Each structure stands twice: as C-alpha cells, then as structure tokens.
Amino acid sequence: MRAELKNFQHEQYYFKLRLGFTGFVVLALFSVLALRFSYLQIKQYKHYQTLAENNRISLVPIVPNRGLILDKNGVVLAHNFFVYTLEITPSKVDNLEQTISEVSKLVEVSSLDRKRFNKLREESRNFESVPIRTHLNEVEAASFAVNHYRFPGVEIKSRLFRHYPLGKLGSHMVGYIGRINDKDLEHLEKNGDLSNYKGSDHVGKSGIEQFYERQLHGTTGFQQVEIDADGRAVRVLSSTAPVPGSNLILTIDSKMQEIAETAFGEHRGALVAINPKTGEVMSFVSQPTFDPNLFVDGIDVDNWKLLNDSLDKPLINRPIRGVYPPGSTFKPFAALAGLENGKRTPPFAIHDAGYFTLANSVHKYRDWKPGGHGVVDMQRAITISCDTFFYGLALELGIDRLAGFVRHFNFGKKTGIDIQGENEGLLPTPEWKMRRYKQPWYQGETVIVGIGQGYTLVTPLQLAQATATLANNGVAMKPHLVAKIQKTITNETQTVPLVAQDTIPLKPENIAIVKRGMIDVTLPGGTAAAVGANAPYSIAAKTGTAQVIGIKQNAKYNASSIDERHRDHALFIAYAPADDPTIALAVIVENGGHGGS
Question: Which end is more exposed in the chain, N or C (fewer Cβ atoms within 10 Å of the end residue's Cβ)?
Fold first, then answer.
C-alpha cells in the first residue's frame, strides 16, 4: 500500500481558521461580559448600591411615648410605664401548643393568659408577635433569656404600657387604648396616618383616648442600624428621635367626678355638669362603669363576657349614647317657646281640673295630681310641674313651631362634644313620622310632646347643654372635655378655644319668668324643695319623670308592683347660683322613680 502524504499546509490553514474563529467567539463573549459589567457597575451603580445598603442596613422604628391625660388640677388619669412581655410570633413556631406548654415550665402562663392570647391571635396577622404573658418580673425575664435558644419565634420585649391609675373613675370619658386591628389599620390608612404607626401596637379605642389619638400618639422616630449576615445589629448609623405625644389637660375635677359617681351608689344612670359660660364639662358620669386597664393587654374572654352580657350594660357610654324621654324637664323649654311665640302672655292662667281633653274627644290626658292644681299661671306651672297647662300650650303652639324653637337648645341634634359616638336623640315632627312609620301626625301626639313624652328622646349630655344654654340666657356654648393641649418637649400649651354654637334671641322678661319658676322648684312647695333646703345660694331646677312602660287609662302607677327595670326613670336638671350660674347639670337615674326623689 502506498502511504498517504499529509498536506501540512492545508491542515495548518484550517487550524488557524478554527483558532481565529474560536478567538473571535471568546473575544465576543468577553466583550459582552465587559459591556454588561460596565452597565451594572456604571449605569446601574446607584440602584444596586441601594439594594446592597438595604441588605446591610435595617430601618428600626422608635415608638414615641404616648401623651398623658390629666384632670384640671394635674391629677394623672392616664400614663405609661415599661414592662417586660413574653411574645410569640405564630408564623415562626412549628407546634404552638407544645411551645406554650414548654414555655410555661419557665414562666407561669395562666388559663386567662392563654384565652387572651388566643383572642389576640385571632385579631392579629400571623407574622406579628402576640403577647402570651405581660408584666414579667426581672427573675422571670432572666429565666427565659437563658433558655431563649430553645424557643425560636418566642422572645422577650420591653413595651410601653398604658395605665389608668384611678381605675373605673371616669372610664367612659377617658376611654382606653387597645391593640391595633384590621379596622384600625383601614382607618389609619384612610387618614394618611399609617406610616406614623410603624412599630406601634396600640391605638385609642374610645373616649378621649380615641378622639385625640393624633395628639396623644406623637411622631414615630427611626434608627438606621447596620446588621450582619445573621440579622444581628452591629452598630447604629443614624437616628431620628421620636416626638412624644402631647399631654391633655381636662376640664374635669377628679374629686368632683368621684363625688358624683359615688352618689349613684348601685343605681344606673348618667350625670353631666357643664359650665354654662364656657361649655367646659365639669363632670361626666356613666353608671355602672368599668376598669379600662382590662383592655390594654387585650381583654380576656371571661371579663369580656361579664361586661358585654351584663343586664346593666356597663360598656354603654350613657351621657352620649343613652336616650331617654325628657319628661317634665322639657317643660321650661316648652314654656319659653310659648312665651316667645306669644301664645302665653302674663297674666294668662288656666284652671286645672286634673285633666285635658281635645275637642270632640272623650280621651282624657291626666295631670300627675288627681283633682288638679286649681288656678295655674306660667311660673307656677313650672314650679309644680302642671301637666294640664303644658298639654294645652303644646297644642296651641303646634308641633312644627314647638320643635323648631327647642331645636335651638340642641334637642334632636349632636352637641359636638370631643368624644366619638354621640347619639343625636330624637325631636319628632310630622315629616319624621311619615318617613319612619308611613303614618300621619295626630294632635294627641303634639299634646304629650308638651310634657316630654311620646317619641321625644334626649341624651343626658343634650339635656345638660340645654340647661346650660337656658342658664346662659340663650347662648349655647359647645361642650368640651379637653381644656389645654401641652407639648411634652417644649411645655408649650395650646388652650382649646371656646365656641358659641348658637345665640337664641330671648326676651329678658320671658326668660325671667321661666327662671323664677325654676328657682321656686327648690323652695318650699316646689317639686325639689329638699334640694334647696339650707343651701347657701339659690338653685334653679326642674324635676322629671319618664315612663318606661305605658299604663292603662285610669290605672294608678304603683312602683312596688312593677319589675324594677320597668319603673319610671327619674330626671333632674339644675343650675346654680341662680343669679350668676357657674354650673348646670342633668341627672338621669334609670328606674329611679320621681325626679324629686
């Protein structure tokens, strides 16, 4: 065989060609890498620098101290203190029940703690930590800290807790804070406040705590903290200090509040006292009351059931939410309506036979006194609370004129007090009845409106403001509970402005008649003579009784034969000193009988 001769020249040519192609490909790939590298290093430098910094730096919120709430004399009604809490993040725990059982061997966890934890867990998001025990002492905190490595997802935190040192006193007025839930988050986001609540767990839920949430909460601060690969803090790079919330100084005197609450004893009801000249609320009582401290940690199931299911309804804020027929306390305002509209001009008087009848009707609207009061003029009608006089007056005025006048005294509308959830009561009109019941208005309904019965409903606050407006000669001042807002750092104090909501043009001679009749109520022969006995100053007042259930025509009311909760409500309005009033109040005692008692 003949050996094949290799063409080295030919092979060398193709080798160089392949080598050149390979080199070109390698060069092209490196060029692409170089271009990409340049793009990332130069063009995208700021973007990736930010991502890298975010991996290295953590933004930690610093929750501000919540502002204090104090009475007018500086007595603290709400303040803060730090406590150790043991908290579990459910998303980081594999077996929750087992973990709690193991933890309870180191730190006592009661059945109430477990119930409260389960309730809070339902209200919280899964990635949030939920307290299983609060108010740990130093020994308990140290005992768990040593064993912390055994419990992933469980940690000890130092949290700022709200405390109400006077407990139940004024709880409906002060309100309480509670853990932030989904509804609160929606509200905060809607108002543009959500970013200020990073790291915060609590928010005002009722009363002043809720209404003045923005002022009390303050401004959240932040720390830029450098962290390592394990997420541990290495050092603080920068810090923005939080701004603590403002302190609120109330119009309330806590000693006066205590006297008023104690006076109720076991009775249910409400009391509101107002300075007629300023609108400052001097006392705000709702009985029975509750301890707001129960809600700070998250109220346990047993206590919640006890409060929520109670027949006495201690959670209802009676001064602004409770609605009652005003009864005879409505008569001074009906009297003013009659005088101002020219329907009753002195020396007009009637002979009260003990009842009133409509034309062409056999139905008798009876006076509270069988046999009547004899000859009665306007002033005496107020003093002795003559129903018959006001039956006829209401009918002559007509419901539109009567309702239109007393509305200026804030019946049938909100007062605008600085607490949320106020009820506007009810001042009935023919238009309202047609909308509500699809029925026409009857004359008999106008008759009973004249004595504060029928559909008419008021809140204790409305009744107190109406009394204050009368005492202030027709000038209606907006009621308010906060007198001053004080910045914590600078001590700069802002006084809450006084607001005149309405000025009713009353003739001096007309209001003088009504006031004289109310003064006589507390003198011998009046329905509240016991109130004025031995008083060092003159008191103007009006008693009232509001039916809870109706009684049959001609039937006699006998409180002892009626279930206690079906007995009449007792009402009382007053202002003093009568010649220069500095306080006006309304009291309602549920099922308390006659207002004079």
Answer: N
